[in-house]
Specification:
Mean pLDDT of chain A: 92
Low-confidence stretches of chain A: 257-269, 409-415
Number of strands of chain A: 13
Largest interface: A-B, 73 and 70 residues
Helix content of chain A: 25-40%
Shape of chain A: elongated
Distance between the termini of chain A: 17 Å
Strand order of the largest sheet of chain A: 3-2-1-4-5-10-11
Oligomer: homodimer
């Protein structure tokens, strides 16, 4: 007998989380084992408040909207940063609601913290012999998840950062005066996104001239020396720096400017670029600009990687298929089987292997001086930004799907 | 007998200056009256140094590259900010070089200052009976040129800003906590680009919730009141503010930052957005982010307006045709003849009417409170961002043309 599927999204946005949602819904709509497909509004937090909508009702009547969903950034269902307290009452409440909606399959899209939720819920269900299969779909622009070759969301953010570097390089190349541009990329502890800026170096373009990852202790003195040296060779020097670079004692370079910390205890970072701009102004004295693409790098749905969109979509369907086949406590993953041509193989992996861990850039993929990456890194990154996705446009602007326009938010209904 | 054409680019970059260059070259290649087509490297400054290349040689042998040029941002020929001194020796030197290269047609692409150059050179040529026809092609993202319905370059920057607002709005919509995002748009004295952010309001999207143009004196007190009021209605409030807003005494709001800044940038803020971020933090205390798209808004060739690209291309050919027909001291312009459907008519206009003037936003196109624009503004703006241009991609990134890859920079040659 068919059971129902419920899907939620959690954590920070990427440009392709909705591609995964679309893949999960499409698989669910075609499966005989799956009845209704529900969505939690604002993840597990919304589930606890029974803020639930019917995705099958919505997309069965509007099948063309699934394609629009596949190409819309951020999170159609909204997000949360809810940490399961682990107490029995909370678990009881969750599984009570799941039972009420006759849920047999629970799929959660998110990063490290969300995979922890998948682990805790599946452990509890197993222990209590509750027949709900719980699987995860990975996402993060930081590419710091273990157990997967690369994270969905990363390729599109990488494409955005590399495009920015190209466009800043073109912009600055028109004058023959000396200038420095410092672009600050996201990634607190993992430098993957910062590293991806080197993809801008197509043909003979030397930008970015300097790249600083958080995996290597950052020295302001070396930085000034590096910039001075590049300025001898080039009029315009473009630097990409991770928001999370730290000095040899582990203090964030930007720490002096922002001492707040977010709910999960992560230091809140902004201003590494602004700080280094002031350093260059003082120590070198040429024209300097600091650019911080900020949230645009994770939400720029208008320039996503086709490779990323398709993989995110496939990982969505793989997670639902896994649950349907009886797997639980796993997340969908991909393994690179070949680089030329680029090929991947989809499977699942135990969430216990990914939750609360972090994959940083291996030291040997960064050059000795710590101001650039190696060829291995470039080979790894190159395929991930490939292809131009067909973002739908209307009236000259990206025509993203918005749950508020579908007039269903805060309406709870069954088919 | 055919005479030669020389083209230069000057001032700050836009995403479609090269579209105008492509239009000028294409027209020139097909004209019987025009022999060789030369390009000045770095505008009039390069001309004075005889830093000149042959565009006809280049593009006759690579005709497909003209399409790539049409879709590449910044300036293929490089730029300058050279102001003619007006002394006789300088004029003599310029016309001596033009004579050496048998130039009959001189076309200059640029903004206000460049049109001043066109005016001075054409006045001099007329006075001295020198048979060189000198015309201009307008450009600026600020849309502050007079004598034209709207400036080429503006529509693409407007599309970029509106897209940013949409993507930030999607990014912030996923949480149910209170937040304010402040996006700082370019345009020191004219608020057209800031105003164009309202195009993001497709369907029911309320973002941007508040829009502040430099044409209206800015009050920090009113701003705080406006934001507070919007926060009562919306979780996430998005503000777009011109970099050039000034208080009632004409002082830039961003100037307030300079007081109290310590040596190494610790408390130093870099702009209007950053300053207002600090104001919201202090006066309201919710989550705030300041975003400054900076040079990306003028150089984002990957998301240009098709309308803008085509108009820039056409204005390029119109300026060459005008010179060929014997006009001088004019620039190519367009007049909107209809809004539904959107139609324009191309012609020329006396440069004397545009040089050293500035078209700001009429007060009646801004609402009374000074925190939004009127319907007239929206009607004016809407057609300008329409259409998606076919930016060529390679390896997952925009495949812009770069004169350095064509291996001709610093090579001076004739066909």
């Amino acid at each position: 007998m068919a059971k129902n599927l419920i899907i939620g999204q959690s954590g920070g946005p990427t440009a392709v989380i909705n591609s995964s949602l679309a893949g999960a819904i499409e698989y669910g709509l075609q499966s005989d084992a799956i009845g209704n497909i529900y969505g939690m509004i604002n993840g597990i937090e919304g589930l606890l408040e029974e803020n639930i909508i019917s995705l099958s009702a919505m997309f069965r009547s509007m099948p063309h909207e699934l394609n629009r969903l596949k190409h819309s950034p951020a999170m159609f269902l909204g997000s949360c940063r809810y940490k399961l307290s682990g107490d029995r009452e909370e678990f009881n409440r969750i599984f009570e609601i799941l039972e009420m909606y006759e849920i047999g399959y629970f799929v959660y899209i998110g990063g490290n913290d969300s995979m922890d939720t998948v682990k805790k819920l599946s452990d509890y269900a197993k222990k209590k012999n509750i027949d709900v299969k719980i699987t995860g779909i990975p996402k993060t622009i930081d590419n710091d998840l273990v157990g997967i070759d690369h994270s969905p969301g990363f390729g599109s953010a990488a494409k955005y950062i590399a495009t920015c570097v190209r466009e800043v390089a073109f912009d600055t190349s028109i004058y023959s005066i000396k200038s420095v541009h410092i672009i600050e990329a996201m990634g607190r502890d993992a430098g993957w996104l910062t590293a991806s800026s080197v993809l801008a170096r197509q043909d003979d373009m030397p930008a970015p001239h300097l790249v600083y990852l958080p995996e290597v202790p950052f020295s302001v003195e070396n930085f000034v020396e590096d910039v001075k040296k590049k300025l001898e060779e080039y009029n315009s020097v473009i630097v990409v720096v991770s928001e999370g670079v730290k000095d040899k004692d582990g203090n964030y370079i930007s720490a002096a400017q922002d001492s707040g910390a977010d709910k999960f205890g992560h230091a809140r970072l902004s201003g590494t670029g602004a700080y280094l701009k002031a350093v260059v102004e003082k120590e070198i004295g040429c024209k300097v600009r600091a650019l911080e693409p900020s949230v645009l790098q994770r939400s720029a749905g208008h320039i996503v990687s086709l490779c990323d969109v398709n993989e995110a979509f496939n990982l969505g369907s793989v997670a639902v298929r896994a649950a349907e086949e009886g797997q639980t406590g796993v997340f969908s993953t991909l393994r690179r089987t070949s680089n030329k041509p680029y090929c991947v193989e989809y499977s699942t992996e135990d969430v216990a292997k990914v939750a609360n861990q972090e994959k940083t850039v291996p030291r040997e993929w960064i050059n000795e001086r710590g101001n650039d990456v190696t060829e291995e890194m470039v080979t790894y990154l190159k395929p991930l930004i490939r292809g131009v996705a067909q973002t739908p446009f209307r009236g000259g602007l990206p025509d993203y799907i918005d749950i508020r326009h579908l007039d269903v938010r805060n309406q709870r209904y069954k088919d």
